[in-house]
Design brief:
It is a single chain. With 279 residues, this protein is of the alpha/beta class. It has ten helices and seven strands. The protein has a seven-stranded mixed sheet with strand order 3-2-1-4-5-7-6, with helices on both faces. The longest helix has 21 residues, at 17-37. The relative contact order is 0.15. GO terms for molecular function: S-adenosylmethionine-dependent methyltransferase activity.
Length: 279
């Protein structure tokens, strides 16, 4: 990952709690499924959280398996710094961190880990095939992979209402792809893991609810939160001459109509693709 890519994610690290609310439940599901295949609470187990972000998956592992040795890495200094503060505050003695490019896990030896996880990073990162190949390399023979990616290369919870809103002002606007389609859809994820040398691949899909207090909170996060994926969709609209403040009330109205609840809250839904596999 280039420094620009990692810096853009580091810039949103402090507001990433909004995303943590969405990603925690599928991370819990993934950890449970992986542990059924290869228990995480037995001697000589060592786990790897690749693309750890602010530490959602690491937190799930630590909560369920407090003595599990774990290495958590990310290309973003901002993300890793938040996880480090969490580790220090909660005294997670068995969790180590490193800033490293997931395409080249320099300094990590072949066959280092019994369990390798990556959650909602591979689909967003450059050169995902290299990342998956590196995860296969650092896994012990017989080890288990737990992978989670978003199930839609446009990230529908935001792109669908955004595209509807933008087309009222710019009729031929199309929301761009923000992820690699090969690493979003279930069938292609399965094929990619087999291609990388994994076996016993099992892939499933989940619909993950994402609750917000009100439509203004959704709009503020999407339009002002600087999430790199969202920025790409917004910039594509601006490049066509669109005005963000003009489209904002239209965007909010569509979200409220399509996803609004009786109490004024908003419930978005994000498709996720999850997988387990063995080396």
């Amino acid at each position: 990952m280039s420094s620009n890519d990692s810096d853009s994610w580091g810039a949103v690290a402090s507001s990433y709690v909004q995303v943590e609310r969405l990603t925690t439940p599928p991370c819990q599901t993934l950890v449970n499924r992986v542990s059924l295949l290869l228990p995480l609470n037995v001697p000589n187990t060592i786990a790897f959280d690749n693309g750890c972000g602010t530490g959602v998956l690491s937190a799930v592992l630590r909560q369920q398996y407090p003595r599990l040795p774990l290495l958590a890495t990310d290309a973003s200094h901002g993300m890793v710094n938040i996880l480090r503060r969490r580790i220090e505050h909660r005294k997670w003695d068995e969790v180590r961190t490193r800033v490293v490019d997931s395409r080249n896990l320099e300094g990590i030896q072949d066959g280092s880990f019994t369990h390798v996880f990556s959650t909602f990073m591979v689909c967003l990162a450059p050169e995902p095939d290299k990342i998956v190949g590196e995860m296969q390399r650092v896994m012990k023979p017989g080890g288990v992979l737990g992978l989670a990616v978003w199930g839609d290369p446009q990230f529908g919870p935001f792109s669908t209402p955004w595209e509807k809103a933008c087309r009222r002002l710019v009729p031929d606007y199309e929301a761009p792809m923000v992820m690699d389609a090969k690493w979003t859809f279930a069938a292609s994820v399965e094929a990619g893991l087999v291609e990388a040398g994994f076996k016993d691949v099992v892939v499933w899909e989940e619909d993950v609810p994402w609750r917000w207090d009100d439509v203004e909170a959704v709009s503020k996060y999407y339009l002002e939160g600087n999430n790199p994926g969202n920025v790409g969709m917004i910039d594509a609209f601006k490049a066509r001459g669109g005005d963000v403040e003009e489209v904002r009330p239209i965007f909010e109205g569509i979200i409220k109509e399509d996803c609004g609840q009786k109490d004024g809250s908003i419930e978005l839904h994000a498709p996720a693709t999850l997988a387990t596999a063995r080396k």
